[in-house]
Amino acid sequence: MEPTPQIEPMVKGIRGLTIAIWSLVAINVFQVAAWVVPMFAPHFYMQFIASSAPEAPKELFESWEGLSFEDKVKRSSIVLITEYKQDGGKLRAIIKEELKHKSGATYHYGVGDEYLPLSVVPKENTTYGDGSLVLLQGTQAVNSESYTIVNGSVTALGDMPLSKVRQIVAQSK
What is the per-residue pLDDT across 152-172, written as a single tens digit (0 to 9) for each? Predict the structure, then answer.
């Protein structure tokens, strides 16, 4: 049965919309794949896709969490030590030392400045330690990880003394 002349334009319109919707679905599938493959199959991505793009640094696709502390320090572009100072009901993280600063890496802080990402309003019955060891990555340095310092030791690293941390950082330069 042939469609009546009045319904024919509507049928053509619906067919056109169907094609447009399926085209959008296909585009979305490719977008999701472009996000999922590097996230869940980084070795495949590095071997077959990113290897053709020389500007894609390998470090961006390797897991930070699986690295040893020494490897994290090697990969960090900036390593800082902060100390907490009580100021009007707030614990301010003041940059005490800059242990490492790769050339070309930029960030908007210097020794003596407050490092805002670690400054806090303390909660009752909570300890924050004496300061933090901060690892930043990239040319536009961003905070990758920080560790609490208590009595001159980094607690999350098995109470590693700061002298040992300084030694590891010096060896990574």
Answer: 999 999 999 999 999 999 998
Tokens representing 128 are 């924050």
Cα 151 from Cα 131, distance rounded (Å): 9
The pTM score is 0.64
CB-based burial label for 78 (10 Å; 0-12, 13-18, 19+): buried
Residue 118 in tokens: 């670690």
HEC per residue, the chain: CCCCCCCHHHHHHHHHHHHHHHHHHHHHHHHHHHHHHHHHCHHHHHHHHHHHCCCCCHHHHCCCCCCCHHHHHHHCCEEEEEEEEEECCEEEEEEEEEEEECCCCECCCCCCCECHHHCECCCCCCCCCCEEEEEEECCECEEEEEEEEECCEEHHHCCEEHHHHHHHHHHHC
Tens digits of per-residue pLDDT, 24-54? 999 988 888 777 766 666 665 555 555 555 5
Contact yes or no for 78/136 (Cβ under 8 A): yes
Q: Residue 73, exposed/middle/buried by CB under 10 A (0-12, 13-18, 19+)?
A: buried
Tokens of 105: 């890496």
